[in-house]
Every structure is written in structure tokens, then in C-alpha cells.
Amino acid sequence: MSRPVSTYRVQLTPDFGFAQVAEIAGYLRDLGVSHVYLSPILQATPESRHGYDVVDHSRIREEFGGATGFREMARQLAAQDLGIVIDIVPNHMNTMNAQFWSVLKDGPASPYANWFDIEWVDGKVALPVLGDDTEPVVDGDVLRYHEHAFPHPGHYRLVDWREGPGYRRFFDVSSLIGLRVEDPSVLSATHEVIFWLFDEGLVDGLRIDHPDGLADPRGYLDRLRERIGAPWTVVEKILIGPERLQPDWACDGSTGYEVLNRVNGLFVDPSGKEPLVRLFSELTGQPEEYRPVMVAAKREVLDLFFGAEIDRLARVTGCDPAAVSELLAAMPLYRAYLVPGEEPPPESVEIVELAAAECSPAVRPLVQEVLYGSAEAIVRFQQTCGPVMAKGVEDTALYRWYPLSCLNEVGGEPDAFGVSVEEFHDFCGEMSPYTMTTLSTHDTKRSEDVRARLSVLSEMPREWASVVGEWSSELSFDPHLDYLAWQNLMAAWPISAERFAEYLLKAAREAKTAISWVRPDAGYERRLREFAQAAVRLPVEEFTERIEPFAMSNSLGAKLVQLMMPGVPDVYQGNETTDFSLVDPDNRRPVTYPRKPETSWDAAKLLVTTQALRLRRRLGGAAPYLPLRAEGEAAEHAIAFARGEGPRAVAVATRLPVRLARRSAVAGHSVWGDTTLTLPSGSWRDLLTGEPHSGTVPLARLLDQYPVSLLERHDL
Q: For the residues of 64-115, what is the DSSP string, one character each?
């Protein structure tokens, strides 16, 4: 097994399987990545475009080429010196699987009854499917209800779809049932393919989906390591603010959302917060403070979606359901890191107590139960915090409170404007050397280049308010949605009316202010599509072109920083050139290879990506990180650091380019003036321009062709 130096994420689909990945092996080698990072490969529902709905853990997905196709792809990738990282889903699987069918038929007597996290009531499991007066129909040994089919006779009961299921599920998705991988037999059965892939040396690393759903993430990771050794492993753990990954989790780090939000923050001007928040509040009627919106959204989703989970927790803890809901709404993180049978860590106690301090006295008995109570109480509370955060924050609050929507990312805090250079250096100094870093994923709310454009708005709020006023005077639809529409229309430009309408429809459903996934409104949705068609005819291109040089600077700067900072950088498919995608499924559209530059921005981004990835391969994995600091009047506009022993590489990027340009206009000289950067000793060559440099270099010279510079020492 080899540790990745960098990865390239590929979204497998029935149209782009193992054979197609093998075809781009040479392209990926030339790009400079060390490993191909595949979306889930196990057998999912046949029509699945993402693979997170596994139905059979014993098979590699046939639509992709099966086991034979996987082996052949691995052989061709290895011939190009490329390894493989796979994405696995230990928390849940689709309910349309043979094992759950057995459980529905035979109840607790089924040999698979221990596979699933079920709350049995009189030996039956509740299935939330009933939605009208239609009677289920018996068809031989099958009971049919609309598109649903169940074994007949069976040990289950059909209930109203609003009730919630009698089993743990993935978030609020009742078609995805929770697995009990804490049971060694279940772990072994659901990981048999994963284990033989490692045994045969076909795979080098793992990305673990949604560890917060597991009863015991630490124990799960320990058992994985006992079975397959210590391959490179990262977990999709959402870390917020100062939260850090638990040091006793047997993994190399997270999938990088905390990195994404800090890199993004480098290019956001904190001085834009007040005017943009004021503009947002005036246009939407929402409050100027984010937290009340977030708490209200969490309370709302608890009432809408999590009644079954609340009732189950109430029964387990012996507490009032209202108190359970109140404490869950106040919890600030996806997990409090409590383990049954162990003394609660002080920081975990603090998390729960701070949440309780915002609640009524009625939660005090519950606090005792989730900190010191039964194993089931502690585990259930842990497993419920994540879904409430995901649905309440990611899928509701972030669609309601969005003064600058590039801040509305997974794990992000939309009221936190800007990250200083010193804060960023401090963060990098604490990073695990093999954690994953990223800018775009299959789950980001918008792509890195969309965010690069949006970041510019933090530097020119007055100009942005003016153009929004012009567009709003010509066209309006829903005050809760219009301002989000204007931001994303501009940032994703050019975009078709169909793509834009689909984005707005999802945004409106997630916001739940006018419609939702469970509360459609045909008239509203028709008017929304009409609004989208009219909006794409507005002169949006004029403003987008105006900010393009600054957005390009942000894009290249963020890309270089992410690729050269500590960690294992991932490039999401197609993002080696510009990509202006919005939330899924928009960001999972097919990608054409090889990527060919169509604009100067494309060409520059491909150059930066290729040279940085190739340099990372030459540097190897855990290269030391050394902050560098510019000197002079525009020093705050540069982020610079060195990597490697010696050091051997230097990365420099421009930040806050609008203010930088205005500074030069006032001063009457070049944008950088007398600002300089002192390079580490030695002779250096810029890999983007070929220019030699050494000693103290004026940034006006170093950054005269591109807003970024990537230097390699060539006298060693």
C-alpha cells in the first residue's frame, strides 16, 4: 500500500464506470495526481447516480463493470503509477435489499435481524409508507402498495409516512436504514469486498462516509485497522469552528470541509460583513443575526422529521420529548464524543452543558442521561445530533440566511466573514500531515469557482447592492429566495434557465419557507420556473465580466493554497479547469476528458493545478510547512508559505484583489508598490513563468504575470 500524495475524485455512474476511469489514466498521471479516488463501488440500486444507497455488500457494482472490470481498471491505473482510494458507506444501506426483506418476513427470528438498528414493537417493525386511502393488495407472496412491495405474510406494520420508521435511518431518508456495524459479524459481512480488495493489494486508502451515524466511530476505526492494517483513511467528519478531529480515532484526518472553509475565508473581506448583512436583511426581511435563524430551523426540522427519533430517545432516557427536542436544537456540533462506560471528557461535558444553558430547566434530567446514563441513551443521543445538524443547518438554515453565500458551506458559519493570514498559518501549523484537503466535492453547495466570484462581493458591497437593485426593479418573485437567486445567477454564469430553475427549486424546498420536499405547490413551482427563464435574460454578464479578473485571482489563489498547504489535496472531477456548478445534482454532471482550456482562466487554472500536483509528488507526503510574510504597504494582500526540507517549494497568492487594485489607484503606482517577499536561501524558479528568483523579491515582479507564484528551489 502507498500513501496518497494527492487524489482525484471521480463520480462513478452507470455511464462512467471502471473502463472509462481506465481510459483517463494517462491524463490523470500527466496531471500529477498519485491516486484516483472513487465514489462508492458496491452494488447500489441500479438507477443510482451516486452509489450511497448500497443494496448488496457482497458485489462490486455490475453497472460499473463488476469485480473483473475493477481488477482491469486497477491494473491499467497501476501501469500509470496511480493508486486507488475508495469511498465506503458503513452507516446505512437501501431498504430494498435481501437481508432486510428477510427481516420483514421473519422478524426477530431472521438471521439478519442483528444487521439493522430496529426498534421492535410486538415483534414488528414500523414502515412509514401509507399516504392515502388506497388499500395494500396481496399478490401471491408479495404485498403491494403503490410502488412499494413487501413480503407476505410478514413481521412488519405499515404506518403513515409522516410517523417516521421503526428503525434508525440516514438523516430523514426512510429508504436508507441504519446498519449495526458495531456488531463484529455485521462489520465482517458488510465489508467482505473491501477486505479482499486490500488483501489483494488493489486499494490503498479509504474515505469513510458519515462516521457520526455510527454507534462507536472510534471502535469501528480500530476494528478496521486491526483487520486491514493502517491504510490511508479519512473520515467525512464535519468539524465546526475550533472543533478538531478526535486524536484517538484511528485515521489520518477528515475529508477537508474545515480546510475548505478556511481557504475560502482567506479571500473574503471582513469589512464587507456589515453592508452585506444589512442588504440581505433589507431584501429578505430576515434578522441580521444568524444564530436565531439556525436555532429556529433546527427546531422546525425536529418537529417536521424527527418525531420517531425524539420519542425513542425519550423512552430510552425517561425524559419528556419536549426536553429532548430542546436540547437537540441547542447542540452546536454533530457529535459530543461521549462513549458509554467511559468518563465523559471535560470538553464533551462543556459542549452539552453550554447547550443546556440555552434551554429551560426541564432539560437537566436529560443532560444527566446523555452524559452519564445508559449506553443506549448515550449512543442514541450521539446518533441523533448529526441528522439534526445536517437537516437543520445544512439543508435549512443555510438556505434562509445567506448575506454572502460562499460562506454557506458544509461545516461553515455564514456569519464568519474572513480568515486572516496569521489565523491561516496557525491552522496549518496544527494540521495532520495526511488529512485530506479540498475545495469542491460532490456535496458542496457550490463549486470553488462560484465561490471565487462570490468572495469578490465582500470587497464591493456598494456596487453589488446597486446592481441587485437594478435587477430587482425589473424582476421579482419571492423575497425569501430572490437575493439567493441573484448571487448564484451571477456566480454560476453562464447558466441555462433549466439548470437555474432546478437549483432554485431545490433551494426553495430546502428553505421550507414557501414549499418543501413534502409540501409542494404546483403554482409556486410554475412561477419559479418563469422567474428563472426571465432572470437569465437580464444583463448579468456585464457585472460578471466586470469582476472576472478579481474572481480569477481568488480562484487561482485558493487553488494554489489548497494544493500546496499541508495535507493530501483532492481535486474534484473537472475542477482542474473552471467549473461553475451549483449544489448536487448540478455538480455531478458528466465531465469530458481530457479537460481543454476554453478561456484564459481555464488555461491558468490548469497550469497551476498541474504544476502544483507534480511538485507535490516530487516533495512527497509530510513536507514541513513554513509561514512566509511579505513586507511593505500591501503585505496584507499576500499569503505565502514554504514547503519541504530546505525548504524546496514556495507558494504565493494574492488575496483581497479589489482593495489591492483600489490602493494602487489612490497611490498612483503599481498595485504592490514597494511590497516584497524574502525567499528562503537558494536559487528559485517560478514553475508558472520560468522566471528565476532569489533573495528579497518585489511582489510586483513575482506576480506580474499571474496573481500567484509557485517556486521550486533548483540548486539542491
A: GTHHHHHHHHHHHHHHTT-EEEEEE--SEEES-SHHHHHHHHHGGGSTTTTT
Question: Is there a contact between 476 and 483 (Cβ–Cβ < 8 Å)?
Answer: no
**Phi-psi label, residue 600: left if phi above 0, alpha if psi -120 to 50, beta otherwise:** alpha
Tell me if 491 sits within 8 A of 582, measured CB to CB: no
3-state DSSP assignment of residue 364: helix
φ, ψ for residue 490, nearest 5 deg = -65, -45
Name the residue type at position 35: H
Question: Quick one: how many helices (H) and strands (E) in the chain?
Answer: 25, 26
Residue by residue, DSSP assigns 584-623 as TTGGGS---SS----SHHHHHHHHHHHHHHHHHHHH-SS-
With a cut of 90, say whether residue 666 has pLDDT above it: no
Residue 131 class from Cβ within 10 Å (0-12 exposed, 13-18 middle, 19+ buried)? exposed
Contact 434, 235 (CB under 8 A): no
Residue 663 identity: R
User: Strands 568-572, 684-686: parallel, antiparallel or unpaired by DSSP?
Assistant: unpaired
Mean local confidence (pLDDT), 621-640: 96
Q: Is the pLDDT of residue 222 over 80?
A: yes
Q: Of 602, 651, 593, 647, nearest to 620 (Cα)?
A: 647
User: Cβ distance 44 to 96 under 8 Å?
Assistant: no
Which amino acid appears at position 576 of this protein?
E
Long-range contacts of 706-709 (CB under 8 A, 24+ apart): 706/556, 706/604, 706/608, 707/552, 707/553, 707/556, 707/557, 707/653, 707/654, 707/657, 708/556, 708/557, 708/560, 708/608, 708/651, 708/652, 708/653, 708/654, 709/650, 709/651, 709/652
Counting residues of the chain whose pLDDT is more than 70, the rounded percentage is 99
By the 8 A CB rule, do 284 and 485 touch? no
Angle at which helices 290-305 and 321-330 cross, to 10°: 140
Distance CA 114, CA 213 (A): 17
| Strand extents, DSSP E, 424-573 | 436-437, 568-572
- Residue 191: in which H helix or E strand, if any? none
pLDDT above 80: residue 716: no
Q: What does the alpha-carbon distance between residue 60 and residue 54 come to, in Å, rounded to a whole number?
A: 10
* Cα distance between residue 234 and residue 211, in whole Å: 10
Q: Indicate whether 620 pLDDT > 90.
A: no
pLDDT reading at 104 higher than 70: yes
Alpha helices by DSSP H, listed for 599-693, are 600-619, 657-667
Please tell me whether residue 449 adopts helix, strand or coil conformation. helix
**Gyration radius (Cα) of the chain, Å:** 26
Quote helix, strand, coil % in the chain, to nearest 5. 45, 15, 40
**pLDDT tens figures, 292-312:** 999 999 999 999 999 999 999
Q: Say if strands 568-572 and 436-437 run parallel, antiparallel, or are unpaired.
A: parallel
Q: What is the reported pTM?
A: 0.96
Say what the pLDDT of residue 625 is: 97
User: Regarding beta strands 7-10 and 568-572, do their DSSP bridges make them parallel or antiparallel, or are they unpaired?
Assistant: parallel
Q: For residue 66, which phi and psi values (nearest 5 degrees)? A: 65, -170
**Which residue type does 376 have?**
E
Residue among 269, 284, 278, 99 at smallest CA distance from 180: 99
Q: What is the pLDDT of residues 60-75, one digit of tens each?
A: 999 999 999 999 999 9
- Summarised one tens digit per residue, pLDDT across range 394-437 is 999 999 999 999 999 999 999 999 999 999 999 999 999 999 99
pLDDT of residue 663: 83
C-alpha cell of residue 691: 522566471
